């Protein structure tokens, strides 16, 4: 007869941190059309981003010749998080836009 | 994603174009900022691609979606997203034998793939003896998940990693370092697979046996192995950065298991790194950087001329971020004996590390690809690779560790170092006495 081996059991604590619920926000109302609107192109420092937005710009200009395109180029991954010295400039640029297309290059 | 959310918060509609493999990452980022319904158009452009044919085709394919994302009326959910409760498991999360605990934790995505020590009440209570802070004390919250890094949660992850209680002061300071700069979260998640490199200075290094000499960053020492491991688990389980969900490292980096050393202060001829940063010699500190690459070289010579030539002649092209020369005490002594201070060495590297004149033409490139993406170095710009700036006044660092030999190293990439002072509990000496003799004894054969 084989004796049963005693197997240690462990009651273990959760390593996964608690987090508070984050208040959720909706997104802003959409435009009814893009013709005649000021469309911003937000470009981060990833090298694919300007290449992507160059194509997007050409497509938007073809489709909406009366729209106006304006670029904002960040020098990092994120103006709002990492470029505190440019926040005012970024805010001013946003104010002048009706809508924004962002490319993150990833 | 953060900038798109910033714009939406100012009542301007946005759409973000993102590589389809990065949707999880984008959605985690959006959720962490409270806007999970932000409009993202997945496209097929591989991260950082410069292949114009692919980019042209991919953006053309999603052009209508891009327009629709800016013009299609909002759904009720997009106007007012439903509240989501974060997953907060019970404190006691599982009961089972060693194998079952390990399997459960692994399947929940809570480990680094290696077996863990079960974090029982007893194991965590012992870990908590390493600090005077109460278990419920909130050290910080870590983005993007905004997980609460309480002392107990740090201790649970430390127990899993196999830490000794005397490492708790370092882990608490390390967690503070992770929160000190918002870019740390981005580094942990980046495609560049930046790995946290932990440099320990001050008396705590000897108190807890952090290796600083031969093979300092090799496996084999419990402190070097488990401190970095615990910080990796904290990044995963508190910060909420998981592989191929938020951590989009393309190649990955073995340094993410654990990359820890103490500076070899005993044999360095120079002031320790933390003293250079304004701390007292008797302070203990944790310094965090995020190199994505580690390169070792046999120098042209081990005298001052050979060591410096090896450094300025071997700076890796297509680089960016912080540069650290990893010098052995022997190399540091060669330099110091010839009158070089650490400051002199750093200045020499900044002034003499240059892009070779014919670098781009020899490669058939027009120079539009910068040698150093952080500084835009290259034709049409400067040939100096390192340019101190208000954002990065000290782009070159020197760390002295390792044994006595000829090899030297570079650690490249990431933001400037973050150095945090370590706070010790009142009964530190007793704790050190209790755990200090836990060291390997190798039998000769």
Please tell me about this protein's structure.
Chain A has about 110 residues and is α/β, with parallel strands linked by helices. Chain A has a domain at about 45-105. Chain A contains three helices and four strands. Chain A has helices at about 50-65, 80, 85-95, and strands at about 10-15, 40-45, 70-75, 100-105. Chain A has a three-stranded parallel sheet, sandwiched between helices. Chain A is elongated and about 85 Å long. The N and C termini of chain A lie far apart (about 65 Å). Chain B is α/β, with parallel strands linked by helices. Chain B has three domains: about 1-80, no CATH class; about 95-275 and about 425-445, no CATH class; about 295-415, no CATH class. Helix content of chain B is about 35%, strand content about 15%. Chain B has helices spanning about 1-10, 25-30, 50-60, 65-70, 75-80, 100-105, 120-130, 150-160, 170-180, 185-190, 205, 220-240, 275, 305-315, 330-335, 340-350, 360, 430-435, and strands at about 15-20, 40-45, 90-95, 140, 145-150, 195-200, 260, 285-290, 295, 325, 395-400, 410, 420. In chain B, strands 7-6-8-13 form a four-stranded mixed sheet, with helices on one face. A four-stranded mixed sheet of chain B has the order 9-12-10-11. In chain B, strands 1-2 form a two-stranded parallel ribbon. Chain B is flat, with a radius of gyration of 24 Å. At the A-B interface, strand 1, strand 2, helix 1, helix 2 and helix 3 of A face helix 1, strand 1, helix 2, helix 3 and helix 4 of B.
């Amino acid at each position: 007869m084989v004796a049963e081996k005693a197997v240690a059991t462990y009651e273990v604590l959760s390593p996964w941190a608690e987090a508070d619920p984050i208040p959720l926000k909706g997104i802003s109302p959409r435009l009814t059309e893009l013709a005649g609107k000021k469309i911003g192109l937000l470009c981060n420092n990833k090298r694919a981003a300007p290449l992507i937005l160059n194509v997007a710009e050409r497509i938007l200009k073809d489709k909406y010749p009366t729209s106006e395109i304006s670029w904002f180029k960040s020098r990092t991954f994120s103006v709002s998080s990492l470029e505190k010295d440019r926040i005012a400039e970024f805010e001013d640029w946003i104010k002048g836009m009706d809508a924004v297309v962002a490319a993150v290059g990833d | 994603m953060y900038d798109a959310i910033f714009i939406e918060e100012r009542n301007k509609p946005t759409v973000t174009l993102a590589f389809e493999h990065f949707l999880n990452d984008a959605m985690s980022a959006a959720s962490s900022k409270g806007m999970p319904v932000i409009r993202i158009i997945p496209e097929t452009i591989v991260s950082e691609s410069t292949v114009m044919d692919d980019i042209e085709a991919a953006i053309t394919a999603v052009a209508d979606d891009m327009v629709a994302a800016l013009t299609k009326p909002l759904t009720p959910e997009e106007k007012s997203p439903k509240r989501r409760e974060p997953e907060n498991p019970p404190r006691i999360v599982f009961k089972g034998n060693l194998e079952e605990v390990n399997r459960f934790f692994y399947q929940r995505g809570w480990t680094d793939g290696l077996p863990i020590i079960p974090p029982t009440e007893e194991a965590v209570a012992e870990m908590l003896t390493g600090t005077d802070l109460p278990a419920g004390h909130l050290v910080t919250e870590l983005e993007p998940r905004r997980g609460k890094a309480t002392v107990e949660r740090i201790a649970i992850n430390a127990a899993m990693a196999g830490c000794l209680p005397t490492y708790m002061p370092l882990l608490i300071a390390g967690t503070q370092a992770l929160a000190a700069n918002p870019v740390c979260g981005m580094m942990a998640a980046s495609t560049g697979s930046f790995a946290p490199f932990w440099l320990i200075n001050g008396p705590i290094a000897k108190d807890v046996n952090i290796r600083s000499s031969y093979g300092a960053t090799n496996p084999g020492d419990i402190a070097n192995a488990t401190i970095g491991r615990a910080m990796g688990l904290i990044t995963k389980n508190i910060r909420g950065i998981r592989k191929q969900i938020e951590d989009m490292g393309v190649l990955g980096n073995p340094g993410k298991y654990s990359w820890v050393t103490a500076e070899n202060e005993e044999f360095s001829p120079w002031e320790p790194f933390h003293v250079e940063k304004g701390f007292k010699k008797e302070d203990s500190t944790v310094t965090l950087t995020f190199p994505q690459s580690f390169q070792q070289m046999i120098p042209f010579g081990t005298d001052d001329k050979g060591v410096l030539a090896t450094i300025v002649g071997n700076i890796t092209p297509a680089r960016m971020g912080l540069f650290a020369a990893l010098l052995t005490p022997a190399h540091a002594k060669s330099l110091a004996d010839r009158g070089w201070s650490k400051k002199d060495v750093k200045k020499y590297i900044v002034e003499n590390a240059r892009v070779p004149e014919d670098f781009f033409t020899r490669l058939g490139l027009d120079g539009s690809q910068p040698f150093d993406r952080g500084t835009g170095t290259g034709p049409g710009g400067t040939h100096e690779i390192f340019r101190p700036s208000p954002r990065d006044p000290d782009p070159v660092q020197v760390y002295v560790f390792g044994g006595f030999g000829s090899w030297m190293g570079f650690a490249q990439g990431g933001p400037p170092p973050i150095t945090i002072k370590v706070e010790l509990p009142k009964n530190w000496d007793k704790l050190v006495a209790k755990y200090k003799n836990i060291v390997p004894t190798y039998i000769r054969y």
